[in-house]
Amino acid sequence: MNVEQIQYNISEACRKAGRKEEEITLIGVTKYVTIERTEEALAAGVHHLGENRLEGFLQKYDAIGEKAKWHFIGSLQSRKVKDMINKIDMLHSLDRKSLAKEINKRAEKPVPCFVQINTSGEASKHGIEPEEALKFIDGLAQYDKIQVVGLMTMAPFVEDEEIIRQTFRRLKMLRDEIEEKHYQHAPCRYLSMGMSNDYQLAIEEGATHIRIGSKLVGQK
Question: Which residues carry this modification: N6-(pyridoxal phosphate)lysine (predicted)?
Fold first, then answer.
C-alpha cells in the first residue's frame, strides 16, 4: 500500500501548481484487488474507492457498504444501471443520452455525474466529442436525477508530457466554459482526470479527482 508516497507526490504537484491539497480527491481504484486489500486501503485512509465493473463493485459494496464513498469510473451499460445507481456516490462516465434517461428512471435521488469527454481524440476511448459537450450538457436539464458536477477524461498512454497536458488542458477549458453558464443542473466544478501514470501532471493542469489503481493499492 503506497498511500504515503502518493500523498507526498500529490503534495509536491500541488506545491508546484500553487494549489491546496484539500482541492484533490484521491480515488483508490480497486478493480484488480481483493476485498481484503480494499479494506486495507480504507484502513490506510483512502475513503474514496473506484470500480469499473458492476460485478466487482457489487461484491465490494456488499462487504464494505457505506464505509466508503463509491465512484463508478467505467463505461456503464444502460441495462446495469438499476443494479448500482442507488449505491454509488459519483458516476464518472456519463457519455450518452440513453444512459442519462435510464439513470433518471432508476435513481431515487440526484446522482452527481461527471460527463466523460474524449479530449485525446483516440478512437479507442469512450466519451463525447468536445464540440458536442455543450449541447449534450444543455440537454441534460430535463433529467432531474442528473447533477453534472464536472467533466472526466483519460489521457493517451504516451511518453510525451505535452500531449498528456494538452488532453487535460482541453478538458479544463471546456469545464470553465460550462461553469460560466451557471446551469442549475450542471454546476460543473470538478475535473476527474489523472491516473497512476499521469496524476501529477493532471494536478498541475487542474484535476480535482484523480483515479489511482496499481500505484496505490497494487494489483492483487
Answer: 31
- Is pTM beyond 0.70 here? yes
Three-state SS sequence of 64-83 = HHHHCEEEECCCCCHHHHHH
Residue 196 exposed, middle or buried by CB count within 10 Å (0-12, 13-18, 19+): middle
Q: For residue 39, what are the contacts with CB-CB under 8 A and spacing of at least 6?
A: 63, 64
User: Rg for the chain (alpha carbons), in Å?
Assistant: 17
Do residues 90 and 149 lie in contact, with contact meaning Cβ atoms separated by under 8 Å?
yes
Within 10 angstroms of residue 28's Cβ, the number of other Cβ atoms is 26
- The residue behind cell 491539497 is 21
39 — pLDDT class (breaks 50, 70, 90): very high
Q: Among the residues of the chain, which ranges form H helices?
A: 3-17, 35-43, 54-64, 81-84, 97-106, 133-139, 161-179, 199-204, 214-217
Give the CA-trace dihedral at 62, 49, 81, 208, to 10 degrees. Answer: 160
